[in-house]
UniProtKB/TrEMBL annotation, chains A, B, C:
Protein name stated in the entry: Rh family C glycoprotein
Keywords: Ammonia transport, Cell membrane, Glycoprotein, Membrane, Transmembrane, Transmembrane helix, Transport
Membrane topology, from the record: Multi-pass membrane protein
Source taxonomy: Eukaryota, Metazoa, Chordata, Craniata, Vertebrata
Main localization (coarse): membrane
Source organism per UniProt: Paramormyrops kingsleyae
Length: 488, 488, 488
C-alpha cells in the first residue's frame, strides 16, 4: 500500500504552513474595502432601477411597469443565482471530507467575484459616458453571476488542493481576464454566445486546467485516502447536479433579447439536457462491469448538453438539433471521465479534481463549433429578415454582416476564449506557485481539517492505519477510544 | 429471525441476473435516436418561440414582448421542473440504501419521459394541421413535466424493486397511456383538471399500484434489512417534501388561463396544503405511542392537500373550501399510512414502497370528486357570466353546457382516469413480469449495490452476514477492525 | 466530565412528561377547525384573483393580463416561500440530532402561522368595509410568509428546548403581536420597512430572546452531549443558508411598489449580502487559532447584510451604501457569535440556540437605524419629486411629510418593534413556563428522540459510555448507558 504516511520523508509530505490567519483576513478586508471605494466612485443605478424611473417611463412612452426589465429578467436571474451558489457549490461536495471547502469556498469566490465583475464588466459594457458612471440593473447582476461561473468552473480543477487565499487571487485574475475576453468576443468580434459555451465554459475550464497543470503535485496519487466519495456526499452532490440541470434553461436564456429569443433558448436547452441524461447513463453502464452506473458520470456528464448548447441556444437550432447536441455531448463527456481524465493526469500532468475537462472544456468547444456552424447556416427563410437581425444583432456597425461571415467571427471568438483561458491560466498558475499562499501539503489535500474547525465527533472515515498513533484529528480519537476499551 | 439469508433455498432468493449491460445501454441509445428522428420529422417551435415572432406580434396586434407566453408561464414552469427532478427525486431518497436509485432513476425516467411526452401530447394537442408539425412552446414543456409526474408517482410504488430497463418500459407505456387519457378527458369530455388530481395523480397512482400488484413479491417481507430509513436519509427526503410542498401552488396554476384563474389556483393550493400539515401532524401524533411524530407521515401526507385541490384549484372554491379539502386529506392520507398500506400489502398483495396509495390515489380521487361537485355547484352569481365561461371554457363545441352537466362530465373523467390507470397498469405489469429485464432478487431489493458502483468505504449499513452477531454498529465495527489489527 | 447522567439527582434531569398525545393533536385540530370557520366568515378572493376579474379589468382600463398583480409578485412570492420552509428549516438542522425537529417543527409553525397571519393581517390591512370581508391576493400570501418569518426567527432561540405545543402557542401570540406591531408601524406611523429589518427581524429576535430568557435552563450546559453539529448536519444547514442568501433579494423586494422600487431593492440586497460574506469569513478566520473558519459563522453571519439592508432596501442607498452596510454587519454578527452569545448565556441568562441575537437582533436594529438615517437624508435631487413620493408614499394623510420627519418616524417604528418584541416575549414566556406543555427535561433537549419516532439503526452518535459493549443501537445505547450509570 503506497501510502502517504509511509512516504513521510518525501518533500511533498513535509508539513506545510497552512496557517492563513495573517493573509486571508487581510485579503478579504482590503479587497472588500477596495470594492466599496470603487463602487462609491463608479457604480450607480441604471434608468430602470433609479427613483427617476417614472420620468424615464414617460419620456420613453412606456405605459406599464411590467415593461421594466426587472420583470423580464428577474426570475431567470434568481435561477442563475441558485446555479452559482447551490448548483456549483453542492456539485463539488462529492468528496468524502471536503464538503465544507466545496460549498464554503464556492460561496467566498462567488461573493467576491460578483462585486469585481460588476466593476470590470461595467467598465466595458455599462459605462455611461455622460457622467463616467457604471449604471447597473438586473442584467448586470446576471452577467456578474455568469462571470463568476467561469471562476467556479476553474475551481473544480483545483478543488481540495489550494488555499482560500489562492482562490481569491485566482478569482481576481479570472474575472479580469473574463471581462476582457468577453469584451473582445461580444463588442469587437460581435459574436453571439448567449449561454457562454465559449466565454464562460471554454475559458473557465482551460483557465482552471492550465492552473492545475502549473500547480501539478507529482505525489498526490499516493494520498488517495480522501479522494473518493461516501454515500451521503454523493447524494449531496446530486443536489448540485439537479439544480444546475433544472435551471440551465434559465442560464442559457437569461440575457437573450426579450420575446422569442429567450423563449427559444429555454426550449433548446431543456431538450439538449434531456438527451444528455440518456446517453450519459448508457455509456456509464456500457463501460462498467456488470453494467453498473457510476455516480460521477451521472453527477456531471448529464449536464454536458447544457454547456454545448450555450452558444447556439437562441438560434433556430430546431428541437431535434438540440437533441443531437445533447446526445453526443453526453457520450463524449462520459467517455472523458473514463478515458481522458486518467490520461490527462498521467501523461499531461493535469490533475482535474472534478473533471471539468469533460464537463466544461470539451462540451464548451463543441458548443462554440455548433454555434459557428449554425450561425453560418442561418437563412432568411428560417429566421425571417427581422428575426435574423434580432438574433444576430446585425445592426449598427455590423448591419451588413451576413451569416456565413458571422460563422467565421464565431470561430474566431472560440480562439479568443482558448487563448485567454490557457494563457491566463499559466500566468496565474505561476503566481499561485509562490510559496506564500498557505496551500496544503499533499496529505492535507481534500481535507476540510486544514482550513475548517470541524465538529468534534465524527462519522465514518476509516482511519488509514490504526497503529499510526501520531494522527492528530478526529480519526485519531476514535481509534484511541477503542484502544482503551481493549486495554480495560 | 426470519431472514433472507436463512431462507436462501427459496426460489426468490436465488441470485438473479441483474446485469443490465447489454439491455440498458441499448434501450437508452435506440430510444434516444428514435426521439431525434421523430423530433426531426414532427417538432418545430411555436409562434411565440419562433424567430418569426416579430411578424406574428404585428399581425396579432401584440404591443409588448411581455405578452409572450414565456413571461406568463416560465416562472411556474421552473417551479414544476424543480418538483419533478428534486421534489420527486429526493422524496424517494428516504430508504437507507436506495438514494442513488431514487434520485438517479427518477432523473432517467423524467429525462426520457419529457421527450416522449412532447411527441405524444403534441400529436393530440399541438399539431398544426397546415404543415403536419407539432409546434411547441413553454406550455408544452410544462405539460410534458406533468405527464412525467404520472410516471414518477407510479415509480413510487415499485421503488427499489425493479430494474432501470423496467422503469424505461414503464415510462414509455405510462406516457402513452397518459396522453390518450388526457386527450379523452380534456378534448372529448371537456373536463377541467388544472392540477391533474385525476389525469396525473389518480392515473399515475393506480398505474403504479396495478403494476406493483402484478409484480407482487411474496417473500419480500423476509428481507426487511434495507426497507427502513436512516436519520440522514430522512432529512434528504424532507428536501423533496418541502420543494414539492412549496411549489405545488405553481404546479396547480401552471397551465391555468392567464389572470385571475392562475392567481386563484395558487391561493387555493397554498391554503389547502397548509391545512394538510396540521392535520397530518395531529393524526401522526395521535396514533403513535407517546404522541411521537412519524417522519413518513410528515414527508408524505402533508402534500395530500395539494393533490386533492388539483382539479378544483382554479374554481371559486373559496379560501375556506380549500382549507376544508386540505383538512380532510391530511387526515385520510395519514390514516392510510397507518392502516391501509399494511392492509394493501397483506390482503391485496400490493406492495407500495412509498405509499402512493395514500398520497396520490386517495387524495386524487377526492380531488376529482371535489372538482365534480364544485363544478356542478358553480353559479353565475359567484363567477359572473364571463368568469364562468373563462373558468370552464364553455365555448366552441360546449358553449351551451351548464355547470350541472359539467359536474357529470367531471365525474366521467374520473372514471376514465381510473380505467386507464388500473387497466394500463395490469397490462404493463404483465409485460414487466417477463424474465428478461434484469430486475433484482428479493434480497437485492432496496439496495443500490445492484445497479450502482458504490463508494468503497461506507457508512453505517449493518453487514449482510448475520453470523457475526455481536456487531452493534459501525463504530463498534471499526473498533473491531482495530482489534484485529492490533492482535495481528 | 460534568455530565448530565452524573447529575441525575438534580431537579432538571428528573424525567419530565413529554407525552404530547392528548394536547398536541387536540391543539392542531381545534385551531385548524377555528381557521376554517374564521376563513369561512371573513376571507374571500380579491379583485385580481376573483372570477369577476374580466369586468374589473374593463372597468379599470387594464388592457393586459400581465398587469394582474400575480405576474409582478408571484416569482418573488415563491422565493420567499422557499426561504421560509427550506431556508429557515434547513438552517436549523445543524444540530447533530435535532434535524427532524428543526425542519419538521419549522414546517408546522409556518403552516399554522400563515393561516392565522392571513386573518390577523387581513383585519388590519385588507378588510373591505363594503362587505366586511378580507380580500386576499398574492401580496397577502407574501405578507403572511413575512409574518411567519418573525416566529421562525424566535424559534431559533428556543430550538431544541421546547415542545411542539409550546411552539404553536408561541406562534399564535407571535403572529398576533406582529400584526398589531405592523399595523402601528405601517399604518399609523407610516414608516417604511420593505424587508422588515424592524417589523420582522428586530421584533422576531427580541420576541424569541425574551421567551428564552424566561425559560432559562440553568443546568443546560451540563448536557452538552447533543449541542454540537456533525459533519453532514453542517452541510444540511448550508442548504438553508444558501437558499436564504440567494433569495434574500426577493424577500426585501417582494412587496415593494412595482417598477424601480422593486428593482432597486433587489440590487441593494444582492450587494449587501455579498459584502457580508467576505467580512464574515475574514473575522471568522482572524479569531480562530490557525485561522481556521468556523461553520457556525459561515452559516449565519453571511446573511446579516440581508437583514440590515431590509428597511432601506428600496431607498436610494446607492450600491456602495449597500456594500458598507453588509461590510459592517458581517463583522458585527460574527463577533457576536464569538463574544456576545457566550456573554448572553453566562451573564444575562439568555440561551440562544441559533444565535439569533447575532443574525437578526443586532443587524435588525442596525437596519432600522440605516433606514432612519437614509430616509432623513433623502432629497428631491436624488429621488426626483415623483420618486420621493413613490418611495416614501408621501400621499394621503402624510402628503406633507418631509424626509427629515420621516426619519424620526422610522426611529419611532424601531422602538415599537423593540417594545413589542421584548414585552410580548416576556408575556408569552410566562405562559410557556406553565408545566402543562410537555417540554423536555434538560437531558432531552436537542434530541429528536423525544418527539419523533427515529429510524432503528443509526449512525454516528458516539455512545455515551464506551465500556458498555452489548449496545445494539443508539436508542438501546442510551437507555443502556443510563441504566449502567445508575447501577454503578
Amino acid at each position: 500500500m503506497g501510502n502517504c504516511l509511509q512516504s513521510v520523508g518525501c518533500f511533498t509530505c513535509l508539513p506545510k504552513n497552512t496557517n492563513i490567519r495573517p493573509s486571508f483576513p487581510a485579503v478579504c478586508f482590503v479587497w472588500q474595502i477596495a470594492m466599496i471605494i470603487l463602487f462609491g466612485v463608479f457604480i450607480r443605478y441604471d434608468a430602470e432601477s433609479d427613483a427617476h424611473w417614472p420620468q424615464y417611463k414617460k419620456s420613453h412612452n412606456i405605459t406599464s411597469d411590467s415593461e421594466n426589465d426587472f420583470y423580464f429578467r428577474y426570475p431567470s436571474f434568481q435561477d442563475v443565482h441558485v446555479m452559482i451558489f447551490v448548483g456549483f457549490g453542492f456539485l463539488m461536495t462529492f468528496l468524502k471530507r471536503y464538503s465544507f471547502g466545496a460549498v464554503g469556498f464556492n460561496f467566498l469566490i462567488a461573493a467576491f467575484g460578483i462585486q469585481w465583475a460588476l466593476l470590470m464588466q461595467g467598465w466595458f459594457h455599462s459605462l455611461d459616458y455622460t457622467d463616467g458612471k457604471i449604471k447597473i440593473g438586473v442584467e448586470n447582476l446576471i452577467n456578474a453571476d455568469f462571470c463568476v461561473a467561469g471562476c467556479l468552473i476553474a475551481y473544480g480543477a483545483v478543488l481540495g488542493k489550494v488555499s482560500p487565499v489562492q482562490l481569491l487571487v485566482m478569482t481576481l485574475f479570472g474575472v479580469t481576464l473574463y471581462a476582457v475576453e468577453e469584451f473582445i468576443i461580444i463588442s469587437i468580434l460581435h459574436a453571439q454566445d448567449a449561454g457562454g459555451s465559449m466565454i464562460i465554459h471554454t475559458f473557465g475550464a482551460y483557465y482552471g486546467l492550465a492552473i492545475s497543470w502549473v500547480l501539478y503535485r507529482p505525489n498526490l496519487d499516493q494520498c488517495k485516502r480522501l479522494q473518493g466519495s461516501v454515500y451521503h456526499s454523493d447524494v449531496f452532490a446530486m443536489v448540485g447536479t439537479l439544480f444546475l440541470w433544472m435551471f440551465w434553461p434559465s442560464f442559457n436564456s437569461a440575457t437573450v433579447y426579450h420575446g422569442d429569443g429567450q423563449h427559444r433558448a429555454a426550449i433548446n436547452t431543456y431538450l439538449s439536457l434531456a438527451a444528455s441524461v440518456l446517453t450519459t447513463m448508457a455509456i456509464s453502464s456500457l463501460f462498467q462491469k456488470k453494467g453498473k452506473l457510476d455516480m460521477v458520470h451521472i453527477q456531471n456528464a448529464t449536464l454536458a448538453g447544457g454547456v454545448a448548447v450555450g452558444t447556439a441556444a437562441e438560434f433556430m437550432l430546431m428541437p431535434y438539433g438540440s437533441l443531437i447536441v445533447g446526445f453526443f455531448c453526453g457520450i463524449i463527456s462520459t467517455l472523458g471521465y473514463i478515458y481522458i481524465t486518467p490520461f490527462l493526469e498521467k501523461r499531461l500532468k493535469i490533475q482535474d479534481t472534478c473533471g471539468i475537462h469533460n464537463l466544461h472544456a470539451m462540451p464548451g468547444v463543441i458548443g462554440g463549433i455548433v454555434g459557428a456552424i449554425s450561425a453560418a447556416a442561418a437563412t432568411e427563410h428560417v429566421y425571417s429578415s427581422e428575426g435574423l437581425i434580432n438574433t444576430f444583432q446585425f445592426e449598427g456597425p455590423i448591419q451588413n454582416r451576413v451569416p456565413t461571415v458571422q460563422g467565421g467571427y464565431q470561430a474566431a471568438a472560440m480562439c479568443v476564449a482558448l487563448v485567454f483561458g490557457i494563457g491566463g491560466g499559466i500566468l496565474v498558475g505561476i503566481i499561485l506557485k509562490l510559496p506564500i499562499w498557505g496551500d496544503p501539503a499533499d496529505d492535507g489535500c481534500f481535507d476540510d481539517e486544514v482550513y475548517w474547525e470541524l465538529p468534534e465527533d465524527e462519522e465514518s472515515i476509516p482511519p488509514v492505519l490504526e497503529y499510526n498513533n501520531h494522527m492528530t484529528n478526529k480519526h485519531r480519537d476514535m481509534s484511541q477510544s477503542s484502544f482503551s476499551v481493549e486495554q480495560s
